[in-house]
Amino acid sequence: xxxxxxxxxxxxxxxxxxxxxxxxxxxxxxxxxxxxxxxxxxxxxxxxxxxxxxxxxxxxxxxxxxxxxxxxxxxxxxxxxxxxxxxxx
Length: 89
Hints:
The strands form two sheets. The protein has a two-stranded antiparallel ribbon with strand order 1-2. A two-stranded antiparallel sheet has the order 3-4. The chain is built from two helices and four strands. It has a domain of 55 residues. It starts with 5 loop residues before the first strand and ends in a 13-residue tail after the last helix. A hairpin with a 2-residue loop joins β1 and β2. It is elongated and about 65 Å long.
């Protein structure tokens, strides 16, 4: 069973609010929505209480690529590269 990531907030005496953190897929969708909005004219976009601007497009694309790698590893396991060496004839 996968672990659930959560954020715990203290909201009062003897009261605790636990909110599940977004999954990798949800994070990827949010980043792709931000990239789409910024490329199509938005001046800024908010993701998880963080405001990003057009200047952050490179960072957002890197974040998107890293999320895709993480999702791939979680889905298919770590990648392996094999090389075959042959003697010249």
